[in-house]
Amino acid sequence: MSEEEFGWKRVLQAFDDWISYEAEEFGPYTGYFSLENLRDLMHVERLSWMHSMVDEIIPGRIDKCREAAVAFEDFMPYMPDPDAREIVQSMIELSQVIEDAMLAMSDTISSMKDDYEEGGMDEIVTYLSDLADGEENIRHHMSLFSQGFAKLRNLGLEMPDME
Question: Could you tell me if residue 122 is inside a domain?
Fold first, then answer.
């Protein structure tokens, strides 16, 4: 396997790992971005959800985003021309935008937890709206990676099969 093929496989594996994390680890927790679903939980379960999001789930999500960015950084030397390097650089920068949005989501949940502990469910409605909007923004930015991969393909850079 050439170094370029190895670089591609590493990038693709990082994205596959990220997508798996989103579906299996993060996704189930997003059901509680809804006030109705959060009401189904007991007080201690709500706090546990908020703690898990801040202490485990979002940090794990950020790690997957960073791993994809690092894979792209390591892959950069194999780009054959300035156009390809520019596309990869934009994808690295996109990772940072997404990471910043994820960190903001963590901050929102931390603030929500504090206000919930002080005032109960009535205090968190706006936070849930902020979380839903933030997640929509993250998903939008994540979808932009497919455009970057398509641009690389249009430059003649073929991705190997992930076997």
Answer: yes
Instruction: Please list, in sequence order, all residues whose beta carbon lies within 8 angstroms of the beta carbon of residue 17, skipping any fewer than 6 positions away.
Output: 64, 67
Range of the domain at 23: 3-154
**86 is a domain residue:** yes
Query: Number of structural domains, the chain?
Result: 1
Compute the Cα dihedral for 84, 86, 89, 94 and give only its sign. negative
Band (pLDDT 50/70/90 cuts) for residue 108 is very high
**pLDDT above 80: residue 55:** yes
DSSP 24: I
Burial class (CB in 10 A: 0-12, 13-18, 19+), 66: middle
pTM of this prediction?
0.92
Q: How many CA atoms lie within 13 A of 93 on its CB side?
A: 7
